Amino acid sequence: MVVELLVVPHVGTPEPGLWCANCQLPSRIGFPVIALLPTGVLDLGHATLCPDCEKPTDAVDAWWRLRRAA
User: Fold this and answer.
1) Average pLDDT of 35-53?
2) Which of 7, 9, 40, 55 is most exposed by smallest CB count within 10 Å?
3) At residue 47, does pLDDT exceed 80?
4) Is residue 67 within 8 Å of 47, Cβ to Cβ?
5) Residue among 18, 34, 25, 32 nearest 53 (CA)
6) Quick one: CA dihedral 35, 38, 39, 40, positive or negative?
7) Rounded to a whole number, what is the largest CA-CA distance in the chain?
8) pTM score, whole prediction
9) Distance between CA atoms of 16 and 49, rounded to whole angstroms?
10) What are the sequence ranges of the domains in the chain?
C-alpha cells in the first residue's frame, strides 16, 4: 500500500542574533521548520542562516544534510 502525503513546510518564529563563525558577527538567524499535514504538525528540525555571508539555498542545503543524517 502506498500512501502519498503533501508536506507543506512552514518556518516558525525566527531567533535572531546567533553568532556566525564565518563572518564573526552575531548575525545568524535560527528558526524551527515544521510541516503542516492533514493529520497534524510534523517537526522538521531547526535551520539557521547568516544573511551577511550565506545565500538562502546554503541554509536549505545544510538543513537537508542534517535531516538526511538523522
Assistant:
1) 85
2) 40
3) yes
4) no
5) 25
6) positive
7) 51
8) 0.66
9) 10
10) 9-69
The answer to whether 56 and 49 are in contact (CB under 8 A) is yes
Which amino acid does the sequence have at 10? H
Residues 6+ apart with CB under 8 A from 39: none
Q: What is the DSSP string of 3-69?
A: -----EEEE---EEEEEETTTTEEEEEEEEEEEEETTEEEEEEEEEE-TTT--HHHHHHHHHHHHHH
64 pLDDT above the threshold of 70: yes
Q: In the 8-state DSSP scheme, what is residue 2?
A: -
Average of per-residue pLDDT across 41-51? 87
CA dihedral 28, 11, 59, 16 (to 10 degrees): 0
